[in-house]
């Protein structure tokens, strides 16, 4: 099986197994959870129905108390004359207006022949014949009830035909009647109040609360009679259901029941305020439907999750497998043999073993050539061709050239007894002994030049103190003379921290060694002791060398020629020492190398051309050196011009400014870091290319952008200032006026 299939199956199973277990547990426990949730939700909605209806009935009860306490509605006053009968109608109308729940209020004073309502008064004999006709309340029962009722009672919802005046057609309505003795809860009531409440008042309240509901809700009195119901079903007349209503009494809770062959979930709560109970019946099939729909939704979600997870797992497996596939392709034909019985990892393993074997053979071969590589890199260091150690760090380390000290100095040793040593069949120099016996605080790397009987020793030192260095190397030179039993003269250059100045130290060491004709052999000659007097008497053409560098950067051959002629005049007219002349030659060559390195970093990319700094020893006159320098510089200018493309440094700098002028932090520091160049060089380079400083160029661009926006848009000045990279409004206005002669507002008005 391939690695890809193994990865895919493993990842998929790792996801599918726990997901399947979680889904199984969720689906199994979901039924009971949903049922409990539905019961709790039903009870909550039922309690809201109970609370609202209780509040409405309490309001009705309060009206009863108010009417009972009204001194103008006493039996004496109402029976006394017709005026108080009219007052009774108005008073009832006023009390009715306090409750939108009550449809009509009737007042009867026991023993009287009239019943009073909010709109009229009726004789008892005509009340039910000509005005209100109850479906199940006969005249005799009605008269008996209003004359003898002692406690409040309720008549369940029934049809009442309300007959209008002038023999208008009767309007049937379902009315719940509340009969209240007056005064209420007194042993000898003198009157009776009848409150008509339309059944739709109850059902409307229930429907508004019991939303998303497929069941039935009803209100039952303390005797088990159904006062009103949301739906009237056949099972409500069954003996089993009536027995359930009678037996539950004041209990609240939930249970199950089967009525007419269908199962229902029954929930009830009891109200202590009214002694009414509130019931809901929800078909069990509705609960099952919800559970089944939820299970189906969970199953679909699980399927979608598995499908999406499979795609994600496939993509992740592909990403993980891709490097393995690439390695397999890499090792194909390199020891990773194809075989139907081997997977990709086996093939890669075989290829790695094969490559390790090849690498071992190369290492053996490399050890034989390491000495040549070491000599080559040492030669480049001494010639000044290594400008940055970090760029060549790996190659130097592999060749054994690892520098542990921060400073560099070069010493050149000349052997004077070559013929005697060759006669005794002895080597001229023991390089291993020279490096091994380097004093503490130093690290040495030796290179022999057989043709000149000399050894160049590149030293890294921990301290640049001249006295310590001279004394230490003097002792070292004496040990070497004793070890080789020969006369050795040592010339020492100056100590430098930069690797690109190793070549200068090398030239200084050679110069010091050349002074043996004056100072004698078999000793140490330091360049410092030679240059003290001459440096005090002679100046140095630093400005002329810098002018040469600027001319090369500008690719101006006439300026290069002028700078070269200035150097010639300085050397001829200054009567400088040999040491100063050679230092000038080195700095000229080093300047060319440095400018070339900067140009290469900037992106112009001319072909590599590093002059050999040791060749200046071959020049007979300063004019010959200047001719060579001019030729190299002219060639360098031509190569820079050939290499200038859209990716040149000045183009990149302008593009950076165009893209970032709106950023207040737009600065040359970012470009210097990005191109690994000094900020001062980039500033000079940009000005030489554009005729403006970097800052002036950015400011001018921002002002031009602001002028354009002031004329072409209606954007507020503050927003324009922010869009062109400034925060301080007053500072920008002063700068704008300085650049254009007018304020931004005046400029917009003038050009709009």
From TrEMBL:
Keywords, comma-separated and alphabetical: DNA-binding, Membrane, Transcription, Transcription regulation, Transmembrane, Transmembrane helix
Family matches, as SUPFAM superfamilies: Homeodomain-like
Presence of keyword Membrane: yes
Residue ranges the record marks as coiled coil: none
Transmembrane segments: 7-31, 296-316
Domain of life, per lineage: Bacteria
Cited SMART domains: HTH_ARAC (SM00342)
Name of the protein this chain belongs to: Helix-turn-helix domain-containing protein
Gene3D superfamilies: Homeodomain-like (1.10.10.60), PAS domain (3.30.450.20)
Record's signal peptide: none
Domain HTH araC/xylS-type: 651-750
Higher taxonomy: Bacteria, Bacillati, Bacillota, Bacilli, Bacillales
Cited Pfam families: GGDEF_2 (PF17853), HTH_18 (PF12833)
């Amino acid at each position: 099986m391939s690695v890809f299939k193994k990865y895919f199956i493993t990842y998929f199973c790792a996801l599918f197994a726990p997901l399947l277990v979680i889904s199984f547990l969720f689906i199994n426990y979901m039924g009971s959870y949903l049922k409990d949730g539905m019961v709790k939700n039903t009870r909550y909605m039922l309690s809201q129905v109970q609370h609202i209806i209780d509040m409405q009935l309490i309001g009705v009860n309060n009206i009863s108390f108010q009417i009972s306490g009204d001194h103008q509605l006493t039996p004496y006053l109402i029976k006394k004359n017709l005026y108080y009968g009219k007052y009774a109608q108005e008073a009832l109308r006023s009390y009715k207006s306090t409750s939108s729940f009550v449809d009509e209020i009737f007042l009867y004073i026991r023993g009287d022949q009239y019943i009073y309502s909010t709109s009229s008064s009726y004789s008892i004999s005509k009340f039910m014949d000509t005005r209100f006709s109850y479906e199940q309340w006969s005249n005799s029962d009605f008269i008996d009830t209003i004359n003898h009722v002692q406690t409040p009672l309720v008549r369940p919802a029934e049809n009442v035909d309300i007959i209008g005046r002038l023999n208008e057609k009767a309007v049937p309505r379902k009315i719940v009647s509340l009969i209240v003795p007056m005064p209420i809860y007194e042993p000898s009531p003198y009157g009776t109040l009848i409150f008509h409440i339309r059944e739709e008042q109850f059902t409307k309240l229930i429907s508004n609360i019991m939303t998303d509901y497929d069941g039935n809700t009803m209100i039952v009195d303390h005797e088990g009679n159904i006062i009103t119901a949301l739906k009237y079903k056949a099972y409500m007349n069954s003996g089993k259901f009536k027995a359930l209503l009678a037996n539950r009494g004041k209990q609240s809770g939930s249970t199950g029941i089967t009525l007419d062959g269908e199962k229902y979930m029954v929930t009830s709560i009891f109200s202590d305020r009214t002694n009414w109970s509130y019931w809901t019946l929800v078909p069990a099939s509705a609960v099952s439907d919800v559970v089944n729909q939820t299970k189906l939704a969970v199953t679909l979600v699980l399927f979608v999750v598995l499908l999406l997870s499979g795609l994600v797992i496939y993509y992740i497996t592909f990403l993980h497998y891709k490097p393995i596939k690439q390695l397999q392709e890499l090792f194909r034909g390199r020891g990773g043999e194809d075989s139907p019985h081997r997977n990709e990892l086996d093939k890669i393993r075989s290829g790695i073993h094969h490559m390790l074997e090849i690498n071992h053979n190369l290492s053996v071969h490399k050890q034989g050539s390491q000495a040549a590589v070491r000599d080559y890199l040492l030669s480049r260091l001494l010639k000044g061709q290594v400008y940055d150690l970090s760029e060549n760090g790996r190659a130097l380390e592999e060749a054994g050239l690892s520098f542990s000290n921060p400073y560099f100095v070069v010493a050149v040793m000349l052997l004077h007894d070559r013929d005697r040593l060759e006669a005794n069949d002895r080597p001229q120099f023991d390089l291993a002994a020279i490096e091994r016996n380097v004093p503490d605080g130093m690290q040495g790397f030796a290179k022999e030049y057989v043709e000149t009987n000399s050894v160049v020793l590149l030293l890294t030192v921990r301290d640049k103190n001249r006295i310590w260095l001279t004394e230490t190397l003097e002792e070292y030179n004496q040990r070497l003379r004793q070890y080789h039993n020969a006369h050795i003269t040592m010339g020492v250059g100056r100590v430098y921290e930069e690797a690109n100045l190793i070549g200068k130290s090398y030239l200084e060491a050679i110069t010091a060694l050349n002074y043996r004709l004056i100072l004698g052999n078999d000793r140490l000659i330091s360049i410092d002791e030679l240059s003290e007097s001459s440096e005090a008497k002679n100046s140095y053409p630093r400005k002329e060398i810098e002018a040469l560098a600027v001319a090369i950067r500008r690719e101006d051959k006439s300026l290069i020629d002028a700078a070269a002629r200035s150097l010639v005049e300085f050397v001829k007219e200054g009567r400088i020492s040999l040491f100063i002349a050679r230092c000038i030659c080195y700095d000229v060559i080093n300047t060319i190398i440095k400018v070339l390195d900067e140009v290469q970093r900037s992106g112009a990319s001319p072909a590599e051309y590093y002059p050999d700094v040791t060749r200046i020893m071959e020049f007979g006159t300063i004019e010959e050196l200047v001719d060579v320098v001019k030729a190299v510089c002219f060639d360098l200018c031509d190569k820079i011009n050939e290499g200038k493309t859209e990716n040149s440094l000045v183009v990149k700098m302008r593009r950076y400014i165009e893209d970032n002028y709106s950023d207040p932090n737009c600065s040359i520091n970012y470009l210097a870091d990005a191109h690994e160049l000094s900020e001062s060089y980039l500033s000079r380079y940009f000005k030489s290319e554009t005729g403006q400083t970097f800052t002036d160029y950015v400011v001018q661009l921002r002002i031009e952008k602001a002028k354009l926006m002031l004329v072409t848009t209606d954007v507020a000045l503050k927003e324009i200032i922010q869009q062109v990279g400034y925060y301080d409004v007053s500072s920008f206005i002063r700068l704008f006026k300085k650049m254009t002669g007018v304020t931004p507002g005046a400029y917009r008005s003038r050009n709009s």
